[in-house]
Amino acid sequence: MKTWAAHLAVLALLLAAGFLLSPYHMTNLARILVLATFAMGYNLAFGYTGLLSLGHALFFAAGMYAAGLPIWHAGLAALPALGLGLAGGAFAALAVGVLALRTAGVSFMIVTLMFAQAGYLTLLYFNATTGGDEGFALPATGRRLFGADLSTDVPRFLAAWAIFAVTFLATLALVRSRFGRVMVALRENEDRARMLGINPFTTKLGVLTLSGAASGLAGAAYAILFGYAGASFATIQYSILPMLYVLLGGAGTVAGPLLGAILMFMLIEAATEVTSAWMFLVGAALVILVLFAPKGILGALRTRLRGLP
Amino acid sequence: MLEVRALTAGYGPVTVLRGVDFDARAGEVTCLMGRNGAGKTTLLKAIMGLVETAEGTIRLSGIDLHDLPAHRRPGHGLAWVPQGRRLFGPLTVAENLEVGGLLHGHRREVREHVLTLFPRLRERLAQPAATLSGGEQQMLAIGRALCLEPKVLLLDEPTEGLQPSMIALIRDAVLRLKAEGVAVVLVEQRVDAVLKMADRVAFMAHGRVEEMVEARKLEHGARQFLDYVGV
User: Fold this and answer.
1) Taking CB atoms and an 8 Å limit, are A196 and B48 in contact across chains?
2) pLDDT under 50 in chain B at which residues?
3) Cβ contact, residue pair A197, B75, below 8 Å
4) Cα A27 to the center of its chain, rounded Å
5) Where are the domains of chain B?
6) Residue B53 forms beta bridges with which residues?
7) Which pLDDT band holds residue A278 (cuts at 50, 70, 90)?
8) Interval B57-77: pLDDT, tens
9) What residues have CB less than 8 Å from A235, skipping those under 6 apart?
10) pTM
């Protein structure tokens, strides 16, 4: 109960923070919440199950385009588009997983990276349909949810918060379930899990599909809330970003991706004000983190706070 | 119950087992002894499906296990406790037992049986496995395997590195399992432990079972211990 209460308190705090911030920062927080949703999806695969993927940009982009293209070309409404985005990410992850999960470790990283690159090039190749490198802006008709205009600050923030909250609580329920224990068992020792009658392939495929679903939902939300879809979201940068959020906040913790997304966002904002070589500062900060807190911030705290799932 | 016949197996081009014949019977403790590299652990891995077999058969209660993938063998009544325990460190004792019992729906009476066998685990249910002492970790490793309700339990050096009081607890548990009708296969290097627990001893050398001897016919300093273990 304490764990659920703590996580509900985090959600309440985020909701309150949104209304206390200026409109500019409210939009930033909405962006952070969507990216944290993406990172939570990544965390299921990497943090809880030990699947180090470099292909999650594909799942994010699959959700973004599965939602964005029907809105752009066919005038679909936002709610079914979000559903399509979730399904698009899940399907892409399932398809990639069927092949990529026959490998492990470094090979898995490379195979997932290749799939993501193939996805990126496909978006560029079919530029007449996808908008190619320039992408496309979503029409206002596809950015309305329950009568609210998602291009305005408050509805956009509330939609981002709601999507984040659902994913956050669903993740908490999942990792505290028996299936969640199996995920950790696979991460810790796959052979041992197999000796307890667990089928590693089907379990990991299930996890990757769920991870893709969350990533796809985040991609769809990003397109709908911020009104743009583009091939740049399918580049390797969007595979590395959620990994950094998870590593910074704490792999294998429910709130770690949120904390990582907030801190990384703030770090990049602060660094860009100091120098144009902001990536150097971000890189230095990450090196320090890996040296002194290799399990991430919440990972380091977990040894003291047993309530962190 | 468990029958291994003419088993040849190894790692890629390296053949380790060269025509092993071996069996384990219900309600008996069968010890595997031999020098390092004799093939004891590889035999257990081959039985569990973790090592590819080139020739031979492995049958459990008449069922041929050859074509079964490793993760389906526990469902037929096989459980393995590897050397070094290999628990899921971040999971608690209760969660480790829960994962162990997933195959059979994590039945309450099975968990109670494990906690009766190892009462110390009951006091540690909420504790992460990684924080247990060596002896407690071994109890948990065995307890987790017992959640599979095995007909055959394979134990790879379960008393290695443990203090005498813990060794006695593990030994008592093994003897209780034997009394309950479980076929226990035990890799063990310590002669006194073998003489206290075993019904039969299989001596391995060069990837084969060279001799299978009834334990009551053995004593400290017996020729087989000198020939196959060097003690």
Assistant:
1) no
2) none
3) yes
4) 18
5) 1-76+191-231
6) B9
7) confident
8) 999 998 999 889 999 999 999
9) A57, A120
10) 0.89
Greatest Cα pair distance in chain A: 55
Sequence-distant (6+) residues with CB within 8 A of A64 are: A85, A216, A219, A220, A222, A223, A229, A233
pLDDT category, A226, cuts 50, 70, 90?
very high
Of B79, B90, B102, the CB nearest to A188: B90
B-proximal residues of A, 49-108, CB under 8 Å: none
Distance, CA of B147 to CA of B150 (rounded, Å): 8
pLDDT of residue B217: 86
Identity of residue A139: P
Contact of B146 with chain A, judged by CB distance below 8 Å, is answered with no
Its CATH class, for the domain covering B1-76+191-231, is alpha beta
A residues 241-300 closer than 8 Å to B (CB):
252
Task: Check CB contact under 8 Å for B148 and A196.
Answer: yes
DSSP notation for B162-191: --HHHHHHHHHHHHHHHHTT-EEEEE---H
Place A308 in a pLDDT band, splitting at 50, 70 and 90.
low
Question: A105 exposed, middle or buried (CB, 10 Å; 0-12, 13-18, 19+)?
Answer: exposed
**Domains recognised in chain A with CATH numbers:** 2-302 (1.10.3470)
Residues of B numbered 98-137 whose beta carbons fall under 8 angstroms of chain A's beta carbons: which are they? 98-100, 102-103, 106
Checking if the pLDDT of A309 tops 60, the result is no
Write out the two tokens for A253: 């913790």
First to last CA, chain B: 31
Quote the pLDDT of residue A86: 98
Which of B71, B95, B156 to probe the A interface (max A CBs under 10 A)?
B71
- Spatial CB neighbours of A244, under 8 Å, sequence gap ≥ 6: A260, A264, A286
Q: Which of chain A's residues have a Cβ under 8 Å away from the Cβ of B50? A: 191, 194-195
